[in-house]
């Protein structure tokens, strides 16, 4: 469904006339199937968020292509309603001037879904993410981090996308809330059958919901492995990563 | 609606708003409100004290000061507002484009702004008036030409700060068109910045236009304008200082009203600040800090 | 045994509304031991820490007694308090990027701190800092000292803060979520350095975190906070093995759910391998 092929990306370093470029992504290729949950694990600065932006079509790759259902992802029509995302920073993920209701309406407005129909759907959507209809009139600053992230998930799945990209979506939450959100994601996956691309630095969380993980370092894929065979990683970096994990 | 309601709760803001509204309507309806013809010379009434017919007295040519004050609203406030709107509009369009699209658009717009801003404002205005000739409309054109770059630059900074927010990213990712994202997400959040910027610069613009008229470059006699009224009163400053009071107070009141309103607008436009204001009666900057603290 | 820090009836409230943020919290800290405060965000962990440092915002009112080496620091004048901060009480913050002055290189900032407290010469400071930085596994200390905060990673900044603590040799270190913003490897390294720091200086530590896995590595005693109240306290082992309060049980169970899943994954495979 999603096919990333030989993608490279570099950013210009320094000022307007500087020629120096920093390579962020280096020959990245992988695929993600329907209904699959793919984890992308990497340190901060490894380029995993840039990869996320490329998958979402927000930036163009220097070389290579990102194809979604056969179409180029940079084309708005290809991804409209089918590809969605939840981001890390919950303090800015909802427009502070929007109520929860208005934020949830946004993706529907684009697709031209009638207001009345959307209103009906909204309650069941809020219910699915574990919120009550009373949240509709609230502003984001009146919600806790976990609640905002639930609203963001509701907003992301409102168009029933084929693929949901979660960029560090749980990293800034408390551990106890992280688990709730992860369980919610697993539940939603059963209902909608969508695939997830789960970008994180937390291996435990990735292992909790992902079918396959992609270990990412300095803009390169170190290793792609099934979660069930995580123990058998080959690369040194992945081994180090697992060894240094602080478990409870 | 919420904004108006919030503004109404703040007494100072409500008063300022009222003053501005009254001023604007008085300016528009000047012929109906003004008790006398502002340009009617009556040498018998030179320096006359206030009377029932001439509430604020008469000036050195025996003209009704109150009527001149009311007619003076037109160039001093109304035309300044028009010039402001045009320059904010130009600045906003370019600023939004530069801040949102970045890259080459940004570089081009910013270099244009740099060029404009590298001339000192007053000198630029004088130059334009020198080329186009003396007159109110030329001063206004000069204002627009100078100010847009300043607005574009500030609006760009404000836009850039919001263009990286999560909700903009989400909107981009879910395939909403750039125009719609700007209109739905960036305009509302930057509107408070723009409102504050323009309402605070209106004060200085009113002062500047009065300043140019004071120098004799703006509107020409016998038409009334507050700065020119000050200039005319200057000759008798030592003998009849009270002639200066009316236009001076008019300028002070209108400029402070705009400034107070811009402060209050900043609070009223931000849903976060409003609720925190309800919670605690601290000053506005303090609340903002507090909110940041909570958010971080 | 004398307690290094005793907090009696610490109550923190918003001055304007009287809303109580921390309810009458009391706890003690022995010389050289490590107390972890766990709880979800908004439970008042960080506010409690900042109350000990007396660094809360002016609109938060704090009452109660905070005895540090038998002296009530809650009643000290600001000037005296400033002398204690850094030298006696040292704080390690969550966000390294925000903890250093972004407009100057790291070295300048550190020099300022050290010369304020000890009055050392520049040369002395540089020597001591270099030594400390080498001991927290930072390579090329002189190069690092000449960099701006944004040029360094979060883990490096965190380790610089620890190195500074090493030089300051405080009696009490308050670490407020020191590893939360870091990724796996730096998290591990920073935690190792913190543990070593304790061993080397024998310093007492208050460790704030919401991650029980991290807490388990460093803490002797644990304090569980919820909505400004201390709901459970005790030794680390007893709390985590046999939590009594439902909230503690909930915290432990969520962390266990994540960890167990992971461990099962790893173990299953080791069985399959053998």
User: CATH top level of chain A?
Assistant: Alpha Beta
CATH topology of chain B: MetI-like fold
Shape of chain B: elongated
Please give the CATH class of chain B.
Answer: Mainly Alpha
Looking at the structure, what is the overall shape of chain A? Answer: globular
Largest sheet of chain A: 6 strands, mixed
Distance between the termini of chain B: 30 Å
What's the multimeric state? heterotrimer
Structural class of chain A: alpha/beta
Question: Largest sheet of chain B, if any?
Answer: none
Q: Using the 3D structure, state the CATH architecture of chain B.
A: Orthogonal Bundle
- What is the count of DSSP helices of chain A, taking H or I runs of 4+ residues? 8
Helix content of chain B: over 70%
Could you characterize the architecture of this molecule?
The complex is a heterotrimer of chains A (248), B (296) and C (274). Chain A is α/β, with parallel strands linked by helices. Chain A has one domain: P-loop containing nucleotide triphosphate hydrolases (Rossmann fold, 3-Layer(aba) Sandwich), CATH 3.40.50.300. In chain A, 34% of the residues lie in helices and 26% in strands. In chain A, the strands form two sheets. Chain A has a six-stranded mixed β-sheet with strand order 6-7-8-3-9-10, sandwiched between helices. The radius of gyration of chain A is 18 Å and the shape is globular. The relative contact order of chain A is 0.17. Chain B has 296 residues and is mainly α. Chain B has one domain: MetI-like fold (Orthogonal Bundle). Chain B contains 13 helices and no strands. Chain B has helices spanning 2-9, 11-28, 30-33, 65-101, 103-117, 121-132, 136-163, 166-173, 178-214, 226-234, 242-269, 271-279, 284-295. The longest helix of chain B has 37 residues, at 65-101. Chain B starts with a helix and ends with a helix. The model of chain B is unreliable at 276-296 (pLDDT under 50). With 274 residues, chain C is an alpha/beta fold. Chain C is 47% helix and 24% strand. Chain C is built from eleven helices and ten strands. Chain C has a six-stranded mixed β-sheet with strand order 6-7-8-3-9-10, sandwiched between helices. The N and C termini of chain C lie far apart (51 Å). The model of chain C has no long low-confidence stretch (mean pLDDT 84). Chains in contact: A-B, A-C, B-C. The interface between A and C is large, with 35 and 38 residues.
């Amino acid at each position: 469904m999603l096919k990333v092929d030989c993608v490279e990306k570099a950013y210009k370093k320094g000022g307007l006339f500087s020629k120096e470029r920093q390579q962020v992504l280096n020959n990245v290729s992988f695929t993600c199937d329907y209904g699959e949950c793919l984890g992308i694990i990497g340190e901060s600065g490894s380029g995993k968020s840039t990869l996320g932006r490329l998958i979402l079509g927000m930036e163009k790759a220097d070389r290579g292509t990102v194809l979604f259902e056969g179409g180029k992802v940079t084309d708005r029509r290809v991804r409209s309603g089918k590809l969605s995302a939840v981001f890390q920073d919950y303090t800015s993920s909802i427009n502070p001037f929007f109520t929860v209701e208005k934020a949830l309406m946004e993706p529907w407005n684009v697709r031209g879904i009638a207001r009345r129909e959307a209103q009906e759907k909204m309650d069941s959507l809020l219910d699915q993410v574990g919120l009550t209809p009373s949240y509709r009139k609230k502003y984001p600053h009146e919600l806790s981090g976990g609640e905002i992230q639930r609203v963001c998930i509701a907003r992301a799945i409102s168009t029933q996308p084929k693929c949901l990209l979660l960029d560090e979506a749980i990293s800034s939450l408390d551990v106890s809330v992280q688990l709730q959100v992860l369980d919610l994601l697993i539940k939603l996956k059963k209902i909608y059958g969508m695939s997830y691309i789960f970008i994180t630095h937390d291996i435990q969380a990735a292992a909790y919901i992902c079918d396959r993980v992609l270990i990412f370092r300095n803009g390169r894929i170190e290793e792609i492995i099934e979660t069930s065979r995580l123990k058998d990683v080959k690369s040194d970096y992945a081994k180090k990563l697992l060894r240094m994990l602080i478990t409870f | 609606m919420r904004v108006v309601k919030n503004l109404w709760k703040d007494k100072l803001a409500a008063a300022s708003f009222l003053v501005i509204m009254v001023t604007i309507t008085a300016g528009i309806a000047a012929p109906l409100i003004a008790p006398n013809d502002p340009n009617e010379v009556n040498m018998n009434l030179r320096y006359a004290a206030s009377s029932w017919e001439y509430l604020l007295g008469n000036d050195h040519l025996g003209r009704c000061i109150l009527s001149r004050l009311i007619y003076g609203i037109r160039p001093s406030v109304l035309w300044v507002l028009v010039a402001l709107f045009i320059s904010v509009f130009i600045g906003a369009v370019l600023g939004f484009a530069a801040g949102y699209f970045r890259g080459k658009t940004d570089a081009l717009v910013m270099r244009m702004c740099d060029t404009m801003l590298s001339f000192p404002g007053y000198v630029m205005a004088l130059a334009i008036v020198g080329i186009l000739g003396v007159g109110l409309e030329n001063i206004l054109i000069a204002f627009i030409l100078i100010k847009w770059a300043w607005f574009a630059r500030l609006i760009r900074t404000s836009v850039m700060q919001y263009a990286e927010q999560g909700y903009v990213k989400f909107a981009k990712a879910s395939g909403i068109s750039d125009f719609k994202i700007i209109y739905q997400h960036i305009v509302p959040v930057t509107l408070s910045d723009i409102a504050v910027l323009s309402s605070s610069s209106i004060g200085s613009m009113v002062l500047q236009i009065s300043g140019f008229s004071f120098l004799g470059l703006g509107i020409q006699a016998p038409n009334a304008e507050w700065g020119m009224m000050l200039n005319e009163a200057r000759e008798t400053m030592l003998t009849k200082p009270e002639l200066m009071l009316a236009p001076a107070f008019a300028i002070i009141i209108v400029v402070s009203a705009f400034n107070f309103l811009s402060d209050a607008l900043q609070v009223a436009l931000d849903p976060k600040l409003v609720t925190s204001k309800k919670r605690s009666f601290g000053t506005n900057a303090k609340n903002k800090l507090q909110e940041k603290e909570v958010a971080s | 045994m004398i307690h290094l820090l005793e907090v009696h009836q610490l109550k923190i409230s918003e001055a304007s509304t009287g809303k109580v943020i921390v309810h009458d919290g009391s706890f003690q800290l022995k010389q050289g031991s490590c107390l972890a405060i766990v709880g979800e965000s908004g439970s008042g962990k960080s506010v409690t820490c900042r109350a000990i440092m007396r660094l809360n915002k002016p609109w938060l009112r704090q009452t109660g007694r905070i005895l540090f080496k038998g002296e009530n620091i809650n009643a000290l004048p600001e000037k005296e308090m400033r002398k204690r901060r850094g030298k006696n009480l040292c704080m390690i913050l969550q966000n390294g990027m925000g903890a250093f002055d972004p407009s100057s290189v790291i070295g300048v900032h550190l020099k300022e701190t050290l010369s304020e407290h000890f009055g050392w010469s520049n040369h002395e400071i540089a020597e001591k800092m270099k030594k400390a930085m080498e001991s927290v596994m930072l390579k090329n200390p002189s190069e690092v000292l000449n960099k701006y905060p944004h040029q360094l990673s979060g883990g490096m900044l965190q380790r610089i803060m620890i190195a500074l603590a090493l030089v300051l040799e405080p009696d009490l270190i308050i670490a407020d979520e020191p590893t939360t913003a870091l990724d796996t490897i730096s998290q591990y390294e920073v935690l190792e350095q913190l543990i070593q720091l304790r061993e080397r200086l024998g310093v007492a530590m208050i460790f704030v975190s919401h991650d029980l896995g991290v807490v388990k590595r460093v803490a002797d005693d644990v304090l569980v906070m919820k909505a400004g109240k201390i709901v459970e306290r005790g030794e680390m082992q007893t709390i985590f093995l046999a939590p009594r309060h439902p909230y503690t049980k909930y915290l432990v169970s969520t962390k266990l759910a994540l960890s167990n899943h992971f461990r099962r994954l790893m173990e299953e495979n080791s069985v399959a391998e053998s």
